[in-house]
Amino acid sequence: MNENIFISIVIPNLNQGKFLSQCIDSILDQKFNSFEIIIIDSYSVDESDKIIKKYLKKIKKKLIYIRKKCGQAEAINYGFKIAKGKFLAFQAADDYYLKDAFNKFYSFSKKNNYANIIYGNIEFRNLKNKFLRPLNFNFVNRFSLSYEGMVVSNQSTIFKKTLLNKYGYILDMRQSFDLEFWLRLSEEKYFKLDTEKPVAVFRIHSRQKSKFYNFYDNTLRQIMLENYEKKSYFYFLSKNFLRSISRFCRFCIHLKKGQFKYIFLYFKKKNF
């Protein structure tokens, strides 16, 4: 790991060329130089490739561009593995950072060197970039979720790369892999920036992959929370058999082949 790089931002991309420039520009406009951008593009068929190559000419030493046919979670994990930064972040290609976000993260980390996970607030904007509303987080423990079902926001959270050695990488799930990841890391203390001002934008639009009110996604999130609260899937299976079987089946449809063994071994290792 190169300690000279404070943060590596991993951006998975698939046909988000419409928003990609704003995402990249929001990093370049930070007035903060200790970063690298890692874009993993899953062979987009829109203008993404052309846009990224344009930035490569400008910031070749700051930008790593890889084309790899893979899902979002796999793309993020690949970026994490090759990242050189002390801290890691993963940002959606259709979202972006606000002014001075990295300076705020950097200053806070210097004052609190023991902080392994640092998060801030976000704001919602629509397709036309019109402000909708803020969303403030106050992570007390793993059950302090916002009503959107979020522990913290991917867009406004950074963590030390060394945590991957302790907690592992993101599970390759179709939905809610972010929540599962943050819940897994919740054994660590989360530190909030000393400002309530948002540091990133979550864009609401019809093309985004994640939709807060998607039935299956919310069901999956509820199952995860019950699991972490009760320490075992078998607890809630016995607590309310029919209801839990239904939820567990919905959970399973989001897992890809081979993930069941991984999850079983993980909870066995943790003695849940």
Question: Which features would summarize this protein structure in a list?
Answer:
Spore Coat Polysaccharide Biosynthesis Protein SpsA, Chain A, four-stranded mixed sheet, 2 domains, alpha/beta, 272 residues
Structure in a nutshell:
The chain is of the alpha/beta class. 38% of the residues lie in helices and 18% in strands. It is built from ten helices and eleven strands.
Describe the structure.
It is a single chain. The protein is an alpha/beta fold and 272 residues long. It has 2 domains: 7-203, Spore Coat Polysaccharide Biosynthesis Protein SpsA, Chain A (Alpha-Beta Complex); 215-269, no CATH class. The chain has 10 helices and 11 strands. Strands 3-2-1-4-9-6-10 form a 7-stranded mixed beta sheet, with helices on both faces. Strands 5-11-7-8 form a 4-stranded mixed beta sheet. Strand 2 (35-41), helix 2 and strand 3 form a beta-alpha-beta unit. Helix 1 (17-28) packs parallel to helix 2 (48-58), helix 7 (215-230) packs across helix 9 (241-252) and helix 8 crosses helix 9. The radius of gyration is 18 Å and the shape is globular.
